[in-house]
Amino acid sequence: MSSNALKKLLAEPPKVVNVGLRGFADDLVARGVETVHVDWSPPAGGDPELADLIAKLDT
Amino acid sequence: MDIITQANDVAVRRMLTGDPALVDVVPAIEAIDGLKDRMILHAGPPVAWNDMCGPMRGAVTGIAVFEGWAENLADAEEQADTGAFEFHPNHHFDAVGPMTGMTSMSQPVMVVENRAFGNRAFCTINEGLGKVMRFGGNDLEVLDRLRWLRGSFGPAFGRALRHIGGLALKDLIARGLTMGDEMHQRNVACSSLTLRALAPAFAATSDDNDALSRALAFIGGNDQFFLNIAMAMGKSIMDPVRDIEGSSVVTAMSRNGTEFGIRVSGTGDQWFTAPVEMPEGLYFPGFTSDDANPDMGDSTIVETIGLGGFAMAASPAVAGFVGAGTATEAAATTHAMAEIVHTENPEWTIPSLDYRGVPTGIDVRYVVETGLAPTINTGIAHKDPGVGQVGAGVVRAPLACFEQAVRALAVRLGIA
Fold it and tell me: Roughly how many angstroms between the first and final C-alpha of chain A, as a whole number?
Protein backbone atom coordinates (compact mmCIF):
# COMPACT_ATOMS: atom_id res chain seq x y z
CA MET A 1 0.00 0.00 0.00
CA SER A 2 1.43 3.41 -0.97
CA SER A 3 1.97 5.99 1.73
CA ASN A 4 -0.75 8.19 0.18
CA ALA A 5 -3.25 5.34 0.32
CA LEU A 6 -2.26 4.67 3.91
CA LYS A 7 -2.73 8.32 4.85
CA LYS A 8 -6.15 8.32 3.18
CA LEU A 9 -7.15 5.15 5.02
CA LEU A 10 -6.25 6.67 8.37
CA ALA A 11 -7.78 10.05 7.59
CA GLU A 12 -11.21 8.84 6.50
CA PRO A 13 -13.89 7.17 8.61
CA PRO A 14 -13.40 3.38 8.66
CA LYS A 15 -15.44 1.02 6.48
CA VAL A 16 -15.58 -2.39 8.13
CA VAL A 17 -16.23 -5.89 6.86
CA ASN A 18 -17.07 -8.09 9.84
CA VAL A 19 -16.81 -11.88 9.43
CA GLY A 20 -18.36 -14.24 11.93
CA LEU A 21 -19.91 -13.00 15.13
CA ARG A 22 -22.71 -10.55 14.37
CA GLY A 23 -22.36 -8.79 17.74
CA PHE A 24 -19.18 -6.99 16.61
CA ALA A 25 -20.97 -5.66 13.53
CA ASP A 26 -24.02 -4.61 15.55
CA ASP A 27 -21.82 -2.60 17.95
CA LEU A 28 -20.10 -0.80 15.09
CA VAL A 29 -23.39 -0.03 13.34
CA ALA A 30 -24.72 1.36 16.64
CA ARG A 31 -21.75 3.75 16.67
CA GLY A 32 -22.46 4.87 13.12
CA VAL A 33 -19.61 2.98 11.47
CA GLU A 34 -20.26 1.82 7.91
CA THR A 35 -20.24 -1.97 8.29
CA VAL A 36 -20.93 -5.00 6.14
CA HIS A 37 -21.54 -8.24 8.02
CA VAL A 38 -20.62 -11.61 6.52
CA ASP A 39 -22.47 -14.55 8.08
CA TRP A 40 -19.79 -17.17 8.56
CA SER A 41 -19.00 -19.95 10.97
CA PRO A 42 -16.32 -22.64 10.93
CA PRO A 43 -17.26 -25.67 8.79
CA ALA A 44 -19.23 -28.30 10.72
CA GLY A 45 -19.48 -26.01 13.73
CA GLY A 46 -15.74 -26.31 14.34
CA ASP A 47 -15.82 -30.10 14.85
CA PRO A 48 -12.55 -31.19 13.14
CA GLU A 49 -13.55 -34.84 12.72
CA LEU A 50 -16.86 -33.94 11.12
CA ALA A 51 -15.28 -31.22 8.99
CA ASP A 52 -12.74 -33.75 7.71
CA LEU A 53 -15.53 -36.17 6.85
CA ILE A 54 -17.42 -33.45 4.98
CA ALA A 55 -14.26 -32.52 3.07
CA LYS A 56 -13.86 -36.15 1.97
CA LEU A 57 -17.50 -36.35 0.91
CA ASP A 58 -17.20 -33.06 -1.00
CA THR A 59 -14.11 -33.96 -3.02
CA MET B 1 -17.24 -37.10 -4.68
CA ASP B 2 -18.49 -37.75 -8.19
CA ILE B 3 -20.69 -40.60 -7.02
CA ILE B 4 -22.54 -38.25 -4.64
CA THR B 5 -22.94 -35.49 -7.23
CA GLN B 6 -24.25 -37.93 -9.80
CA ALA B 7 -26.57 -39.60 -7.31
CA ASN B 8 -27.93 -36.22 -6.21
CA ASP B 9 -28.48 -35.23 -9.84
CA VAL B 10 -30.64 -38.33 -10.18
CA ALA B 11 -32.43 -37.55 -6.91
CA VAL B 12 -33.45 -34.00 -7.80
CA ARG B 13 -34.33 -35.01 -11.37
CA ARG B 14 -36.83 -37.45 -9.87
CA MET B 15 -38.15 -34.70 -7.62
CA LEU B 16 -38.54 -32.24 -10.47
CA THR B 17 -40.11 -34.70 -12.91
CA GLY B 18 -42.66 -35.93 -10.38
CA ASP B 19 -46.22 -35.41 -11.58
CA PRO B 20 -48.55 -35.59 -8.55
CA ALA B 21 -52.34 -35.57 -8.87
CA LEU B 22 -55.03 -35.89 -6.20
CA VAL B 23 -57.06 -38.75 -7.63
CA ASP B 24 -59.37 -40.22 -4.98
CA VAL B 25 -60.55 -40.44 -1.38
CA VAL B 26 -61.06 -43.94 0.02
CA PRO B 27 -61.13 -45.67 3.43
CA ALA B 28 -57.58 -46.14 4.71
CA ILE B 29 -58.04 -49.90 5.02
CA GLU B 30 -58.66 -50.11 1.24
CA ALA B 31 -55.81 -47.81 0.29
CA ILE B 32 -52.92 -48.69 2.57
CA ASP B 33 -51.24 -52.09 2.22
CA GLY B 34 -50.61 -53.71 5.58
CA LEU B 35 -52.94 -51.50 7.61
CA LYS B 36 -55.17 -53.60 9.84
CA ASP B 37 -57.54 -53.71 12.78
CA ARG B 38 -56.16 -52.13 15.98
CA MET B 39 -53.20 -50.66 14.11
CA ILE B 40 -52.56 -46.93 14.52
CA LEU B 41 -50.22 -45.00 12.28
CA HIS B 42 -48.70 -41.86 13.80
CA ALA B 43 -46.52 -38.93 12.78
CA GLY B 44 -42.76 -38.98 12.99
CA PRO B 45 -40.18 -41.71 13.46
CA PRO B 46 -41.13 -44.79 15.54
CA VAL B 47 -42.27 -44.07 19.10
CA ALA B 48 -43.60 -46.37 21.82
CA TRP B 49 -46.82 -45.61 23.73
CA ASN B 50 -44.88 -44.87 26.93
CA ASP B 51 -42.69 -42.31 25.15
CA MET B 52 -45.52 -40.46 23.41
CA CYS B 53 -46.18 -36.81 24.30
CA GLY B 54 -49.50 -35.60 25.71
CA PRO B 55 -51.26 -34.64 22.46
CA MET B 56 -50.16 -37.88 20.78
CA ARG B 57 -51.58 -39.93 23.66
CA GLY B 58 -54.77 -37.90 23.55
CA ALA B 59 -55.15 -38.55 19.83
CA VAL B 60 -54.47 -42.28 20.25
CA THR B 61 -57.19 -42.66 22.86
CA GLY B 62 -59.56 -40.62 20.70
CA ILE B 63 -58.96 -42.65 17.57
CA ALA B 64 -59.44 -45.89 19.54
CA VAL B 65 -62.92 -44.70 20.57
CA PHE B 66 -63.63 -43.51 17.02
CA GLU B 67 -62.76 -46.93 15.60
CA GLY B 68 -64.90 -48.70 18.21
CA TRP B 69 -61.93 -50.41 19.83
CA ALA B 70 -62.62 -48.74 23.19
CA GLU B 71 -65.76 -47.66 25.01
CA ASN B 72 -64.30 -44.38 26.20
CA LEU B 73 -60.99 -42.52 26.56
CA ALA B 74 -60.12 -44.12 29.89
CA ASP B 75 -60.75 -47.58 28.48
CA ALA B 76 -58.59 -46.71 25.46
CA GLU B 77 -55.75 -45.61 27.72
CA GLU B 78 -55.93 -48.82 29.73
CA GLN B 79 -55.85 -50.87 26.55
CA ALA B 80 -52.88 -48.90 25.23
CA ASP B 81 -51.06 -49.59 28.51
CA THR B 82 -51.55 -53.32 27.98
CA GLY B 83 -50.29 -53.25 24.40
CA ALA B 84 -53.68 -53.68 22.71
CA PHE B 85 -52.74 -51.41 19.81
CA GLU B 86 -49.97 -51.67 17.26
CA PHE B 87 -48.14 -48.40 16.50
CA HIS B 88 -46.19 -47.58 13.36
CA PRO B 89 -45.04 -44.40 11.59
CA ASN B 90 -47.17 -43.22 8.67
CA HIS B 91 -43.98 -43.04 6.64
CA HIS B 92 -43.63 -46.84 6.78
CA PHE B 93 -46.98 -47.17 4.97
CA ASP B 94 -46.69 -44.62 2.11
CA ALA B 95 -48.63 -42.17 4.26
CA VAL B 96 -48.19 -38.91 6.15
CA GLY B 97 -50.28 -37.14 8.77
CA PRO B 98 -50.21 -33.62 10.25
CA MET B 99 -49.27 -33.03 13.93
CA THR B 100 -50.26 -36.24 15.79
CA GLY B 101 -50.89 -37.79 12.36
CA MET B 102 -53.43 -40.42 13.35
CA THR B 103 -54.27 -42.81 10.50
CA SER B 104 -56.53 -45.80 11.19
CA MET B 105 -58.58 -48.27 9.20
CA SER B 106 -61.91 -46.52 8.70
CA GLN B 107 -60.70 -42.96 8.18
CA PRO B 108 -60.99 -41.66 4.63
CA VAL B 109 -57.59 -40.90 3.11
CA MET B 110 -56.80 -38.71 0.15
CA VAL B 111 -54.86 -40.50 -2.56
CA VAL B 112 -52.14 -38.62 -4.45
CA GLU B 113 -50.67 -40.47 -7.41
CA ASN B 114 -47.28 -39.52 -8.81
CA ARG B 115 -48.12 -40.16 -12.43
CA ALA B 116 -44.49 -40.00 -13.54
CA PHE B 117 -43.49 -42.95 -11.34
CA GLY B 118 -46.79 -44.72 -10.60
CA ASN B 119 -46.53 -44.61 -6.80
CA ARG B 120 -49.28 -43.42 -4.49
CA ALA B 121 -49.23 -41.58 -1.16
CA PHE B 122 -51.96 -41.04 1.42
CA CYS B 123 -53.08 -38.49 3.97
CA THR B 124 -56.24 -37.98 6.01
CA ILE B 125 -58.49 -34.97 5.38
CA ASN B 126 -57.71 -31.73 7.21
CA GLU B 127 -60.25 -31.33 10.02
CA GLY B 128 -60.22 -27.53 10.12
CA LEU B 129 -59.24 -25.21 12.93
CA GLY B 130 -60.06 -25.24 16.62
CA LYS B 131 -60.26 -28.40 18.67
CA VAL B 132 -59.15 -31.19 16.32
CA MET B 133 -57.50 -34.59 16.61
CA ARG B 134 -54.30 -33.58 14.88
CA PHE B 135 -53.59 -31.33 17.88
CA GLY B 136 -54.59 -34.03 20.34
CA GLY B 137 -58.29 -33.13 20.62
CA ASN B 138 -60.47 -36.15 21.41
CA ASP B 139 -63.88 -35.04 22.75
CA LEU B 140 -67.32 -35.65 21.23
CA GLU B 141 -67.08 -32.62 18.94
CA VAL B 142 -63.81 -33.93 17.50
CA LEU B 143 -65.07 -37.49 17.05
CA ASP B 144 -68.37 -36.36 15.52
CA ARG B 145 -66.48 -34.34 12.91
CA LEU B 146 -64.37 -37.40 12.09
CA ARG B 147 -67.56 -39.46 11.73
CA TRP B 148 -68.96 -36.88 9.30
CA LEU B 149 -65.72 -36.92 7.30
CA ARG B 150 -65.94 -40.73 7.16
CA GLY B 151 -69.63 -41.06 6.41
CA SER B 152 -70.42 -38.05 4.23
CA PHE B 153 -67.63 -35.69 3.21
CA GLY B 154 -64.98 -38.30 2.34
CA PRO B 155 -67.20 -40.29 -0.03
CA ALA B 156 -68.46 -37.07 -1.67
CA PHE B 157 -64.89 -35.81 -2.06
CA GLY B 158 -63.90 -39.09 -3.71
CA ARG B 159 -66.84 -38.95 -6.13
CA ALA B 160 -65.94 -35.40 -7.15
CA LEU B 161 -62.30 -36.30 -7.79
CA ARG B 162 -63.19 -39.37 -9.83
CA HIS B 163 -65.70 -37.26 -11.80
CA ILE B 164 -62.96 -34.89 -13.03
CA GLY B 165 -60.30 -37.58 -13.42
CA GLY B 166 -58.16 -36.20 -10.61
CA LEU B 167 -56.70 -32.80 -9.79
CA ALA B 168 -53.18 -32.09 -11.12
CA LEU B 169 -51.13 -30.45 -8.37
CA LYS B 170 -47.89 -29.16 -9.84
CA ASP B 171 -49.42 -26.19 -11.66
CA LEU B 172 -51.72 -25.50 -8.75
CA ILE B 173 -48.71 -25.16 -6.43
CA ALA B 174 -46.99 -22.86 -8.92
CA ARG B 175 -50.03 -20.57 -8.89
CA GLY B 176 -50.34 -20.76 -5.11
CA LEU B 177 -46.75 -19.56 -4.68
CA THR B 178 -47.53 -16.47 -6.75
CA MET B 179 -50.61 -15.88 -4.58
CA GLY B 180 -48.80 -15.83 -1.24
CA ASP B 181 -48.94 -19.47 -0.07
CA GLU B 182 -45.95 -21.44 1.18
CA MET B 183 -48.17 -24.55 1.67
CA HIS B 184 -47.36 -25.22 5.31
CA GLN B 185 -48.80 -22.49 7.51
CA ARG B 186 -50.49 -20.59 4.66
CA ASN B 187 -52.75 -22.47 2.25
CA VAL B 188 -55.44 -19.86 1.59
CA ALA B 189 -54.76 -19.61 -2.14
CA CYS B 190 -54.36 -23.33 -2.83
CA SER B 191 -57.43 -24.19 -0.72
CA SER B 192 -59.42 -21.66 -2.74
CA LEU B 193 -58.08 -22.92 -6.07
CA THR B 194 -58.99 -26.46 -5.03
CA LEU B 195 -62.51 -25.41 -4.12
CA ARG B 196 -62.87 -23.60 -7.44
CA ALA B 197 -61.74 -26.70 -9.33
CA LEU B 198 -63.87 -29.16 -7.37
CA ALA B 199 -67.11 -27.34 -6.56
CA PRO B 200 -68.76 -28.13 -9.93
CA ALA B 201 -67.80 -31.80 -9.56
CA PHE B 202 -69.16 -31.93 -5.99
CA ALA B 203 -72.42 -30.52 -7.36
CA ALA B 204 -72.50 -32.83 -10.37
CA THR B 205 -72.12 -35.94 -8.20
CA SER B 206 -74.45 -34.97 -5.35
CA ASP B 207 -78.20 -35.56 -4.98
CA ASP B 208 -78.42 -33.99 -1.53
CA ASN B 209 -78.32 -30.19 -1.43
CA ASP B 210 -77.83 -30.00 2.34
CA ALA B 211 -74.86 -32.36 2.24
CA LEU B 212 -73.44 -30.50 -0.75
CA SER B 213 -73.79 -27.15 0.97
CA ARG B 214 -72.08 -28.41 4.12
CA ALA B 215 -69.24 -30.00 2.13
CA LEU B 216 -68.51 -26.83 0.17
CA ALA B 217 -68.77 -24.67 3.28
CA PHE B 218 -66.33 -26.99 5.05
CA ILE B 219 -63.68 -26.53 2.36
CA GLY B 220 -64.36 -22.83 2.00
CA GLY B 221 -64.17 -22.27 5.75
CA ASN B 222 -60.81 -23.93 6.25
CA ASP B 223 -57.74 -21.95 5.16
CA GLN B 224 -55.58 -25.00 5.84
CA PHE B 225 -57.70 -27.48 3.85
CA PHE B 226 -54.94 -27.84 1.26
CA LEU B 227 -52.18 -28.63 3.79
CA ASN B 228 -52.95 -32.36 3.88
CA ILE B 229 -53.08 -32.47 0.07
CA ALA B 230 -49.66 -30.77 -0.08
CA MET B 231 -48.35 -33.34 2.40
CA ALA B 232 -49.56 -36.37 0.41
CA MET B 233 -48.14 -34.68 -2.68
CA GLY B 234 -44.78 -34.26 -0.92
CA LYS B 235 -44.72 -37.91 0.09
CA SER B 236 -45.58 -39.00 -3.45
CA ILE B 237 -42.74 -36.85 -4.83
CA MET B 238 -40.12 -38.01 -2.32
CA ASP B 239 -40.78 -41.76 -2.24
CA PRO B 240 -39.27 -42.36 -5.72
CA VAL B 241 -36.14 -40.58 -4.45
CA ARG B 242 -35.47 -43.24 -1.79
CA ASP B 243 -32.55 -45.67 -2.03
CA ILE B 244 -30.32 -43.97 -4.59
CA GLU B 245 -26.83 -45.28 -3.80
CA GLY B 246 -24.55 -42.45 -2.73
CA SER B 247 -27.19 -39.71 -2.60
CA SER B 248 -26.99 -37.27 0.30
CA VAL B 249 -30.46 -35.82 -0.40
CA VAL B 250 -33.00 -35.89 2.45
CA THR B 251 -36.13 -37.90 1.56
CA ALA B 252 -38.15 -37.28 4.72
CA MET B 253 -38.16 -35.03 7.78
CA SER B 254 -40.69 -35.79 10.47
CA ARG B 255 -41.45 -35.37 14.18
CA ASN B 256 -43.47 -37.33 16.70
CA GLY B 257 -43.49 -34.75 19.50
CA THR B 258 -40.65 -36.57 21.21
CA GLU B 259 -38.05 -37.02 18.49
CA PHE B 260 -37.24 -35.42 15.14
CA GLY B 261 -36.22 -37.88 12.42
CA ILE B 262 -34.81 -37.66 8.93
CA ARG B 263 -34.21 -40.20 6.17
CA VAL B 264 -31.59 -39.83 3.47
CA SER B 265 -31.70 -41.39 0.02
CA GLY B 266 -28.25 -43.02 0.12
CA THR B 267 -28.83 -44.64 3.51
CA GLY B 268 -32.15 -46.30 2.69
CA ASP B 269 -35.00 -46.16 5.15
CA GLN B 270 -32.87 -45.71 8.27
CA TRP B 271 -34.07 -42.94 10.61
CA PHE B 272 -31.59 -40.50 12.10
CA THR B 273 -33.19 -39.04 15.20
CA ALA B 274 -32.58 -36.45 17.90
CA PRO B 275 -34.76 -34.87 20.58
CA VAL B 276 -37.28 -32.57 18.96
CA GLU B 277 -37.04 -28.84 19.57
CA MET B 278 -39.59 -26.34 20.83
CA PRO B 279 -41.08 -23.97 18.23
CA GLU B 280 -40.64 -20.24 18.72
CA GLY B 281 -43.63 -18.24 17.65
CA LEU B 282 -46.81 -16.42 18.50
CA TYR B 283 -49.52 -17.72 20.81
CA PHE B 284 -53.27 -17.39 20.67
CA PRO B 285 -54.82 -15.17 23.39
CA GLY B 286 -54.68 -16.87 26.77
CA PHE B 287 -51.74 -19.16 25.95
CA THR B 288 -47.97 -18.86 26.40
CA SER B 289 -44.87 -20.91 25.67
CA ASP B 290 -45.47 -22.69 28.99
CA ASP B 291 -48.46 -24.38 27.33
CA ALA B 292 -46.59 -25.55 24.23
CA ASN B 293 -45.80 -29.08 23.20
CA PRO B 294 -42.51 -29.76 21.39
CA ASP B 295 -42.60 -29.85 17.59
CA MET B 296 -44.74 -32.55 15.99
CA GLY B 297 -46.06 -33.94 12.67
CA ASP B 298 -45.21 -35.35 9.25
CA SER B 299 -45.95 -31.97 7.68
CA THR B 300 -42.21 -31.29 7.32
CA ILE B 301 -42.49 -33.32 4.12
CA VAL B 302 -43.57 -29.93 2.73
CA GLU B 303 -40.17 -28.40 3.57
CA THR B 304 -38.49 -31.54 2.20
CA ILE B 305 -39.80 -30.65 -1.27
CA GLY B 306 -38.81 -26.97 -1.00
CA LEU B 307 -42.01 -25.39 0.30
CA GLY B 308 -43.03 -24.23 3.80
CA GLY B 309 -40.12 -22.50 5.54
CA PHE B 310 -37.99 -22.94 2.42
CA ALA B 311 -40.50 -20.85 0.43
CA MET B 312 -40.99 -18.27 3.20
CA ALA B 313 -40.16 -15.45 0.75
CA ALA B 314 -43.33 -16.28 -1.21
CA SER B 315 -45.47 -15.65 1.84
CA PRO B 316 -44.69 -12.50 3.84
CA ALA B 317 -48.08 -12.93 5.51
CA VAL B 318 -47.04 -16.21 7.06
CA ALA B 319 -43.76 -14.74 8.29
CA GLY B 320 -45.84 -12.38 10.41
CA PHE B 321 -48.24 -15.12 11.50
CA VAL B 322 -45.48 -17.41 12.76
CA GLY B 323 -43.44 -14.57 14.30
CA ALA B 324 -40.61 -14.92 11.79
CA GLY B 325 -40.25 -11.20 11.15
CA THR B 326 -40.54 -8.92 8.16
CA ALA B 327 -40.79 -9.63 4.44
CA THR B 328 -37.06 -8.94 4.19
CA GLU B 329 -36.38 -11.57 6.86
CA ALA B 330 -38.68 -14.00 5.05
CA ALA B 331 -36.59 -13.55 1.91
CA ALA B 332 -33.41 -14.05 3.95
CA THR B 333 -34.79 -17.38 5.20
CA THR B 334 -35.35 -18.63 1.66
CA HIS B 335 -31.87 -17.42 0.62
CA ALA B 336 -30.36 -19.27 3.60
CA MET B 337 -32.19 -22.48 2.70
CA ALA B 338 -30.82 -22.16 -0.84
CA GLU B 339 -27.37 -22.74 0.68
CA ILE B 340 -28.22 -26.25 1.88
CA VAL B 341 -29.86 -27.70 -1.24
CA HIS B 342 -28.75 -29.21 -4.51
CA THR B 343 -30.74 -26.99 -6.87
CA GLU B 344 -33.78 -24.76 -7.42
CA ASN B 345 -37.16 -25.79 -8.81
CA PRO B 346 -37.65 -23.96 -12.12
CA GLU B 347 -41.41 -24.61 -12.07
CA TRP B 348 -42.11 -23.43 -8.52
CA THR B 349 -40.88 -19.87 -8.46
CA ILE B 350 -41.14 -16.89 -6.12
CA PRO B 351 -42.10 -13.55 -7.70
CA SER B 352 -40.52 -11.40 -4.99
CA LEU B 353 -37.16 -13.12 -5.55
CA ASP B 354 -37.21 -12.30 -9.28
CA TYR B 355 -38.82 -15.67 -9.92
CA ARG B 356 -36.04 -17.65 -8.31
CA GLY B 357 -37.09 -21.28 -7.82
CA VAL B 358 -37.75 -22.76 -4.39
CA PRO B 359 -34.69 -24.47 -2.81
CA THR B 360 -34.85 -28.15 -3.73
CA GLY B 361 -33.04 -31.28 -2.57
CA ILE B 362 -31.74 -30.81 0.99
CA ASP B 363 -28.15 -32.09 1.10
CA VAL B 364 -27.06 -33.35 4.53
CA ARG B 365 -23.45 -32.40 3.73
CA TYR B 366 -24.36 -28.75 3.24
CA VAL B 367 -26.48 -28.67 6.40
CA VAL B 368 -23.59 -29.98 8.50
CA GLU B 369 -20.94 -27.89 6.76
CA THR B 370 -22.81 -24.59 7.11
CA GLY B 371 -24.61 -25.27 10.36
CA LEU B 372 -27.79 -24.01 8.68
CA ALA B 373 -30.56 -26.29 9.92
CA PRO B 374 -33.74 -26.50 7.81
CA THR B 375 -36.31 -23.88 8.84
CA ILE B 376 -39.79 -25.24 9.42
CA ASN B 377 -43.08 -23.37 9.74
CA THR B 378 -45.34 -25.15 12.18
CA GLY B 379 -48.46 -25.12 14.29
CA ILE B 380 -48.01 -25.39 18.06
CA ALA B 381 -50.10 -27.88 20.04
CA HIS B 382 -50.96 -27.62 23.74
CA LYS B 383 -48.86 -30.03 25.77
CA ASP B 384 -51.89 -31.58 27.44
CA PRO B 385 -54.15 -34.11 25.70
CA GLY B 386 -57.42 -32.83 24.31
CA VAL B 387 -56.77 -29.07 24.27
CA GLY B 388 -55.70 -28.41 20.67
CA GLN B 389 -53.73 -25.70 18.88
CA VAL B 390 -52.33 -22.80 20.91
CA GLY B 391 -50.15 -20.98 18.38
CA ALA B 392 -47.91 -21.10 15.33
CA GLY B 393 -44.20 -20.62 14.93
CA VAL B 394 -40.88 -21.58 13.44
CA VAL B 395 -38.63 -24.44 14.48
CA ARG B 396 -35.26 -25.71 13.33
CA ALA B 397 -34.49 -29.32 12.50
CA PRO B 398 -31.88 -30.61 15.00
CA LEU B 399 -28.39 -30.63 13.46
CA ALA B 400 -27.62 -33.90 15.24
CA CYS B 401 -29.88 -35.77 12.78
CA PHE B 402 -27.84 -34.51 9.84
CA GLU B 403 -24.51 -35.21 11.54
CA GLN B 404 -25.56 -38.82 12.11
CA ALA B 405 -26.64 -39.09 8.47
CA VAL B 406 -23.29 -37.74 7.21
CA ARG B 407 -21.42 -40.32 9.29
CA ALA B 408 -23.68 -43.15 8.08
CA LEU B 409 -23.32 -42.09 4.46
CA ALA B 410 -19.52 -41.98 4.84
CA VAL B 411 -19.58 -45.54 6.20
CA ARG B 412 -21.76 -46.66 3.28
CA LEU B 413 -19.30 -45.12 0.81
CA GLY B 414 -16.32 -46.71 2.56
CA ILE B 415 -14.58 -43.49 3.58
CA ALA B 416 -15.07 -43.69 7.35
Answer: 37
